[in-house]
Amino acid sequence: METTFHMLKTNDEVRTRIKELAAEISADYGSISGDNPLLALCTLRGAVFFFSDLVRELSVPCEIDFIKVHSYGSGTRPEGAPIFDLGESIDLKNRYVLIVEDIIDTGATMDTLLKTFRDKGAADIRICTMLDKPDRRKPELREVILPDYIGFTIPDKFVIGWGLDYDDKYRLLKDIMYLSSDD
Ligand code: IMP
Ligand code: MG
Predict the structure, then answer these.
(1) Prediction pTM value
(2) DSSP-derived secondary structure letter, 177
(3) Is 106 in the pocket of ligand 1 (CB under 6 A)?
């Protein structure tokens, strides 16, 4: 079996889209004050590059923090429930939270995150994802997980690069590519 790489989004396309998203987010949070700045939460490890480029383009007061989420054991399909290390030190009370994800697939990870965060008393929680794969959404989450900001909506392909991995490989690829296996 041979694995082939195909280009999905070039580095330039992703960079351009991040600037557009940052402008949109900055406009939407235009009234946010420095006394209670936006809290952008990066889901490690996949979102790290998207996140760092995005938050540095924002023109509103913003703090950053990190959570560790992991749902893939190995290979290209989810294995078991997501594992979280939400860091007890992150105080969400009355905060305006923007969760920044690499990709939303079945929606299970985001569903668990939202449930966890809603109990922590945030004033508002929004979702920004670099990629959305709506065709893979669990039927019961189709009307529940609705990202506020989407970089690109993509077909049901396993993608790598820009932080996304396959068995911990390819995270550092500068373009977003997808894999296909030819038997
Ligand atoms: P979900 O819980 O099924 O929505 O999956 C969310 C997580 O699975 C993402 O944050 C990624 O870490 C991982 N994931 C989903 N699809 C892909 C993919 O195509 N390539 C790499 N990782 C993926
Ligand atoms: Mg992720």
Answers:
(1) 0.93
(2) E
(3) yes
